[in-house]
Amino acid sequence: MKLAASFLRSVRPALGNPLVRPLQPIRWARYQAFEAEFDSEELERARSWHKAFDGSQLPKGQTTTESKAVTVWPVKDLLPVLPKLLHRGIRESKYYTARSDSLTLQAQTHRQRDANTEENQQKLVDEVKRIFQETVPGETSPDKKKKHAEIAKSFNEGRLKQKKQLSSKKQSRRPSFD
């Protein structure tokens, strides 16, 4: 959840209008695998956590009034249950309330408060899964890693070749004093 929250804060413009998003740079070429930017140990921890995650580990929150269910999960209760890579996204979630440092979810689609509370719990699980999908990249296959290594190598060789050609061109312009 923190991941989603942090992601949303990072893409929101300074004015705070959530409907207007700043321009995002477009990646045309990558010379390394996407997961190379992350700590491999943290990635492995997050991936193993995701395989076992079913939402039952999350705290249940507090509910109030009639059929409308407002469920509040303090962030301090959620963070110990989530991997470190997701912490930032929780506070950037659309459900994050800065004043109380918690995630606040509301539902009143059902006539029973219990059903609305369960819907809020499902919203929390969905939000955590969404944050995970946005934050943790998929595993890079050995073939792709090899491909990126070859691309980087050929790029470097081309750069050096071009540099040598430019150097020899400049060298040929110099008068020789033999």
Automatic annotation (TrEMBL):
Sequence ranges of Basic residues compositional bias? 161-178
- Source organism lineage? Eukaryota, Fungi, Dikarya, Ascomycota, Pezizomycotina
Region (Disordered) spans which residues? 105-125, 153-178
InterPro entries membership: Mito_Release_Factor_mL62
- Where is it found, in Gene Ontology cellular component terms? mitochondrial large ribosomal subunit
Q: Which PANTHER family match?
A: LARGE RIBOSOMAL SUBUNIT PROTEIN ML62 (PTHR11075:SF54), PEPTIDE CHAIN RELEASE FACTOR (PTHR11075)
Please give a single GO biological process term from the UniProt record: mitochondrial translational termination
Any one Gene Ontology molecular-function term assigned to this protein's record: peptidyl-tRNA hydrolase activity
Which segments show compositional bias classed as Basic and acidic residues? Answer: 111-125
Q: Which organism is it from?
A: Colletotrichum spaethianum
Name the source's superkingdom.
Eukaryota
What name does UniProt use for this protein?
A: Peptidyl-tRNA hydrolase domain-containing protein
